[in-house]
Amino acid sequence: xxxxxxxxxxxxxxxxxxxxxxxxxxxxxxxxxxxxxxxxxxxxxxxxxxxxxxxxxxxxxxxxxxxxxxxxxxxxxxxxxxxxxxxxxxxxxxxxxxxxxxxxxxxxxxxxxxxxxxxxxxxxxxxxxxxxxxxxxxxxxxxxxxxxxxxxxxxxxxxxxxxxxxxxxxxxxxxxxxxxxxxxxxxxxxxxxxxxxxxxxxxxxxxxxxxxxxxxxxxxxxxxxxxxxxxxxxxxxxxxxxxxxxxxxxxxxxxxxxxxxxxxxxxxxxxxxxxxxxxxxxxxx
Length: 285
Hints:
alpha+beta, Arc Repressor Mutant, subunit A, 2 domains, three-stranded mixed beta sheet
């Protein structure tokens, strides 16, 4: 469960790799020198890129720069899902993009990718449509299709910057906290009362040292992390025929009003509005 360097193997006749990996519940907290574009379709999932931690619903398109620690986006997904991963050869930006004036916007996008970007709206829809299409293409047409996708992303303002600072691996090399241990503990106990003292003991730190270090690594307190995990689990349940009150108690909240307030703060809408909107979207598909 320590951070791992992923070794990516490329076809010597291609400058990038496109594949559909499936990790399921395997915890893969990792990094690699290759830029990566990931698309996931799932009822619900977790995004952990650098210091940024959030949940996503329905689908997620994210661009990750070189050597940024990140969690596999299918971690914890217990329902059916689809995933497409594009990994650019380490020399791709220099050999393919940097020396071509027409690719200036793409060059700038890739240079800033170490901050991490998630895309939404029509940008995501257009990029994903083309991403699905290039899987069936031959190598030359596939490359042109990828350039088209990168251009769509580079020309868009429909994105969220995930980190405000450089979170490349040098920041995490002395990581004493094994995030896999933290995730596993929370997953087993989020509906109860997760105890920060227990987690600190599991990773061999004092409670105060663990709290300081965890905040530094994630920009969140342990309590905030637990609550966000609970809300993420609640999103999945809200897509089922379960009442809001029942969901609040099942993910560990004693107060329905507090659950409603926290959900709106983190998600931007009430649990009831979230349920109505996403149930409607599911019915339209």
